[in-house]
Write a structure and sequence with these properties.
Elements lengths: L3 E4 L2 E4 L4 E7 L8 E7 L6 E6 L5 E3 L7 E6 L4 E6 L8 E11 L2 E6 L3 E6 L1
Parallel strand pairs: 2-11
Antiparallel strand pairs: 1-3, 3-8, 4-5, 4-9, 5-6, 7-8, 9-10, 9-11
């Protein structure tokens, strides 16, 4: 089992920055993939930025060059630095972790943190 706790959301003006944090309840060395998704009102949850197997990163096209995902293994924490925020970035942001053990894939989600960007 992995518990994920997000923090760092809030209200910011367009062009501003926020940094989200996601702390895992266990070492993230054993987690295959970890990162961030978001869900805007009335829309599906979509990938924003993640670390995939082998430490590679994957970004949604609209955030490339503005958002950066990083991690601190010693703190079991993944971050999402969001710069040049736009109103369309407004959503609930969820931390995600995927663990693969003995061929079984388990997906974990945090409770979500609201990001609101005003124009």
């Amino acid at each position: 089992q992995v518990q994920l706790v997000e923090s760092g959301g809030g209200l910011v003006q367009a062009g501003g920055s926020l940094r989200l944090s996601c702390v895992a309840s266990k070492s993230i060395f054993s987690i295959t993939a970890m990162g961030w998704y978001r869900q805007a009102p009335g829309k599906q949850r979509v990938l924003v930025a993640t670390f995939t197997g082998g430490g590679r990163t994957n970004y949604e096209d609209s955030v490339k060059g503005r958002f950066t995902v990083s991690k601190d293994n010693a703190k079991n924490t993944v971050y999402l630095q969001m710069n040049s925020l736009k109103p369309e970035d407004t959503a609930v942001y969820y931390c995600n972790a995927i663990e693969v053990r003995a061929g079984t894939i388990t997906t974990y989600w945090g409770q979500g943190t609201q990001v609101t960007v005003s124009s």
